[in-house]
Amino acid sequence: MKVAVMGYGTVGSGVVEVIETHSDIIPKKIGGDTLEVAHILDLRDFPQDPHKDLFTKDFNDILNDPEVKIVAETMGGVNPAFDFTIKLLKAGKSVVTSNKELVAQKGLELLQAAEESGTNYLFEASVGGGIPIIRPLTQCLAANHIEGVAGILNGTTNFILTMMIEKGMSFADALKIAQDKGYAEKDPTADVEGHDACRKVCILASLAFGKHVYPSQVETEGISNITLEDVSYINSAGGVIKLLGQIKYISDDKIAAFVSPAVVYNGSQLASVKDVFNAILVRGDAVGDVCFYGPGAGKLPTASAVVADVIDCAKHTERKKIFGWGCGDEDYVVDYKDSIKMQFYVRAKASCAQINGIFSEVKYLSRKGQPSDEVAFITDVMTENELNNNLKNIEVINTIKVTNY
């Protein structure tokens, strides 16, 4: 069976490599048929590449090849990936992707196009790289009512926070090392400000609860305001700081979804996830908490998930997989600040007497070198709007959500 690859970057080249190096085992998984890469679409030239005869700069070479039944889209971004993908689906070709931005923004339209044409649009690699999460969420956990999801969904930010926690590095120094190692881009905004994690939250929320969630509906806060002082205070409370994407079920017509730094206590499975690794914890009413852990990015881990989707499509050429979600609406994702109660970490310029006069119950924290006019504490359970109202006359330095995962 002939396949095509669109985009020959880190993931795309990995897809070609995995298909070739596993040519002995793939046929056993799809009933004896082999996978053959017929076209590789990229605007760049690769004159020294052993696959140079497969390259094309014309998308129509793939679209109009009747022998190509499955296409791996590893281009990234919304355009032209969306235009190419929808044309392929309408032409009766299944498409698999690692493109989280495209799925988060246009997943509903592409799933509908696949439904209409009887093809498949699969995206296991779009959330956790090499971590299996899409199939477990939609198949293995299908008997559960999903109560919530919390995930460390970005390896760059997790690496930076690990360096701050374990090496005592500042945010700026840890970011520089992440860039030197190739974990962070020259412009790290998408990672450190939470946009990458936000897109993955959208995909997980759409799958878990059956309605499309757009990035604009997910309030997002990154880690650039986290300091070593915050790390030290939270360590004294027996916890660490992680950038979490969180999704919470409220009702059949309402969910909350947000990305932010969070205090994770050391007893949590998420607290021990270090460096560039990712983890996704799913809470079901029947199964309880299950955690999926592994490399969230990287050439071969991500490529393995893409090729797994290619294999799945090859096994389902004569039938459509029941997979996807329906339309959402503007009111589907609620303002969590007014609806979700949780504890908060607060660091402020204030006295204990002032804080005791505002909050009924707090747990004070300490750190080495703590200034006499600075307090840090964990609040009782409340909404974020209630917290902000309580702190309106206090000089707040930082607040961080405390997770219950």
Proportion of helical residues: 25-40%
SS field, number of helical segments: 16
Oligomeric state: single chain
> What would the average pLDDT be, to the nearest integer?
95
Characterize the biggest β-sheet: 10 strands, mixed
- What's the end-to-end separation, in Å? 44 Å
The backbone outline, from C-alpha atoms, is elongated
Strand content: 15-25%
Structural class: alpha/beta
The total count of strands amounts to 16
Radius of gyration: 23 Å
Low-confidence stretches: none
Task: Explain this structure.
It is built from 16 helices and 16 strands. Helix 4 links the parallel strand 4 (68-73) and strand 5 (94-97). The chain is 35% helix and 24% strand. The longest helix has 18 residues, at 100-117. The protein starts with a strand and ends with a strand. The chain is elongated, with a radius of gyration of 23 Å. Strands 7, 8, 9, 10, 11, 12, 13, 14, 15 and 16 form a ten-stranded mixed beta sheet that branches. A six-stranded parallel beta sheet has the order 3-2-1-4-5-6, sandwiched between helices. With 405 residues, the chain is of the alpha/beta class.
Q: Care to give the gist of this entry?
A:
The chain is built from 16 helices and 16 strands. With 405 residues, the protein is of the alpha/beta class.
